[in-house]
Amino acid sequence: MKFQNILSRINKIAAIASGILVVIIMLMTVFEVVGRYAFNSPTSWSIELSGYLLLISVFLAASYTLEKRGHVQVDIFINMLPNKTRFVITTITAILAIVFSILLLWQTSKLTFDAFSLEWVSNTVLKIVLYPFYLAMPVGCVLLIAQALSDLILLGSKRKTV
Questions:
Q1: How many helices (H) and strands (E) does the chain have?
Q2: In a domain? residue 70
Q3: CA 42 to each of CA 22, 32, 110, 151: distance values in angstroms, whole numbers, following the listed order
Q4: Domains in the chain: how many in total?
Q5: 3 state SS of 121
Q6: Would residue 133 count as lying in a domain?
């Protein structure tokens, strides 16, 4: 099986997981609103846990979004350029995205390692262990780098425009 096909399957699984997390966040928010306003009994965990789940959701969905060309881009000017110039700009942009993602991987890996080795917990009543949530950042970065490299390879073979 080709690398792109395997990566596409992994991206799809990560995107589905991300979507499920968004639904869970929504349900927790509804639970919080109903508890707070209908029963005058707010939760102590809903907002904090929603933030951590959102972190996971964003990083898991990034690679799938790149694969499907869902990231925001302003292409009104790019589309007016000749194909060769557009190809060069697209290639440079893809390389810069890879460099940025590698830097992000480096920093999020350091943060996750620190959270694990120093046993970081949240500064709230819940005292949630943070490294499992932080682990989604380097994992998402690896997927993002893999997808960007895949796109760059396809772009280089001129079979697909990024």
A1: 5, 0
A2: yes
A3: 21, 6, 35, 46
A4: 1
A5: strand
A6: yes
pLDDT grade for 79, boundaries at 50, 70 and 90 = confident
| pLDDT, tens digit (0-9, with 9 covering 90-100), for 116-149 | 999 999 999 899 999 999 999 999 999 999 999 9
What tokens appear for 31 in the block?
């639970």
Is 162 contained in some domain? no
- Using DSSP's 3-state secondary structure scheme, residue 37 falls into helix
Altogether, the residues listed in the chain come to a count of 162
- For residues 134 and 112, is the Cβ–Cβ distance under 8 A? yes
State pTM to two decimals: 0.87
Q: Which amino acid is present at 151? A: D
In the chain, the largest separation of any two C-alpha atoms, in whole Å, equals 63
CA angle centred on 78, ends 76 and 81, rounded to 5° = 120
Is residue 83 situated within a structural domain?
A: yes
102-117 confidence digits (pLDDT tens): 999 999 999 999 999 9
List alpha helices for 39-135, DSSP H. 46-67, 83-117, 131-134
> How many whole angstroms separate alpha carbon 139 and alpha carbon 162?
22
Q: Compute the distance between CA of residue 22 and CA of residue 56 in angstroms, rounded to an integer.
A: 10
Residue 110 sits in which domain range? 3-156
Taking the C-alpha atoms of residue 36 and residue 125, their distance in angstroms, rounded to an integer, is 18
